[in-house]
Amino acid sequence: MSSLHHRHLAVSPDWLALYYRHPLEITHGEGRHVWDADGNRYLDFFGGILTTMTAHALPEVTKAVTEQAGRIIHSSTLYLNRPMVELAERVVSLSGIPDARVFFTTSGTEANDTALLLATAYRRSNQILAMRNSYHGRSFSAVSITGNHAWSPTALSPLQTLYVHGGVRSRGPYAHLSDEEFIAACVADLEDLLGHTRDAAALIAEPIQGVGGFTSPPDGLYAAFREVLDRHGILWISDEVQTGWGRTGEHFWGWQAHAENGPPDIVTFAKGIGNGMSIGGVIARADVMNCLDANSISTFGGSPVTMAAGLANLSYLLEHDLQGNARRVGGLLTERLRAIAAGSESVREVRGRGLMIGIELVKPGTDEANPEAASAVLEAAREGGLLIGKGGGHNTSVLRIAPPLSLSIPEAEEGAAILADALRAAE
After folding, report:
1. What is the Cα–Cα distance from 421 to 221, expressed in whole angstroms?
2. N or C: which end of the chain has fewer CB within 10 A?
3. What share of the chain is helix, strand, coil (3-state, %, to 5)?
């Protein structure tokens, strides 16, 4: 055990998870690579949990942070804040929500917490619809709407949560159906559920479930849900903490795969927009955002330094068409991974979009999740010089691949080759 690991254990909660048998201290990064305290170099296919969206040590972001820190670091939302207004204007223009307002937070958890506050106040109801296998953060309210047992440490809740079918296409009671039949069955389940309960405030859903293992429904499910929700006056919250900003390649927001009946009432975001700086936020149409009848501020949300970073990062992403790069390079990487998986009895499915790819592992010859294999591949990939993540529903048996969106084709090929070796080593 390293000295730092020993010190970590002495001062940190037992439930604070660490990857690897011998945990890694990352000291610096550049582009799509990071280095550890021993000088080892790794190709980063996880980006600090989908947070380093453009690149490590991106000069444009570093310059913006340095220059802003040299002027003023903090003021709070009690004062006018030019970088916050400028980033809010950019986010509103990209949101697809008419007459939108933006409230900045410091994390995705806090963003979802704020969205729940808005929805329950607007609807005067504490009942929330959430998706099975979901994850929305670690606050008391966010944990209470998380449909993933491994990340929900208490049954106590300020909300009444009802879980809906549909977030996982290839497992569960509707997995055998066609896409059209799957959507119809999920809509019928939602209709039936609403017939047995009081008025709900909102449905919250990740377009692609992140911690749940990069699972998603067929395109159009949430558009079909929206027809039912609208009849009941229920709001739709799209949790874009992991899917936003072009990561899926095909769309800028994950909800746009379900856009037939218009945008969500509320969108939450975080992670990639700050490229490592602590930015989260909520976008909502004005009548929803303005429904609170008490004063509120944010001490750290909208900090001048983080807003400067967000502006520089978003500008870089748009000017360099990183969404298009995610589509092109992500498509190639997915093809390579599927070709590798075809020769492995341990891989059940390779899924995802753009640079948000999941590899689900099972015990050979069965459909049973294999979390031990996922851990083994994680270790073997690290030995080969590649960092990846893991997740999943009932068991953590999905490899999560989400590199910075500037990933090059040679880097994608290199990562796929290391993963192929790691899969073979773990079998």
Report:
1. 37
2. N
3. 40, 20, 40
Each residue's pLDDT tens digit, 106-123:
999 999 999 999 999 999
Q: If DSSP codes are grouped into helix, strand and coil, which group holds residue 229?
A: helix
Look at residue 149 in the predicted model and tell me its pLDDT: 81
pLDDT at 336: 97
Q: Cβ distance 23 to 382 under 8 Å?
A: no
Query: Taking CA 270 as the corner, what is the angle to CA 146 and CA 405, rounded to the nearest 5 degrees?
Result: 110
Decide: 138 and 304 in contact? Cβ < 8 Å. no
CA angle 80, 267, 147 (to 5 degrees): 130
Residue 261, class by beta-carbon neighbours within 10 Å (0-12 exposed, 13-18 middle, 19+ buried)? Answer: middle
Q: Full-prediction pTM beyond 0.85?
A: yes
d(Cα 115, Cα 284) in Å, to the nearest integer? 9
Q: What is the pLDDT of residue 236?
A: 98
Q: In which residue ranges of the chain is pLDDT below 50? A: none
- Taking the C-alpha atoms of residue 255 and residue 365, their distance in angstroms, rounded to an integer, is 36
> Distances from the Cα of 393 to the Cαs of 242, 249, 262, 398, in angstroms?
17, 24, 29, 9
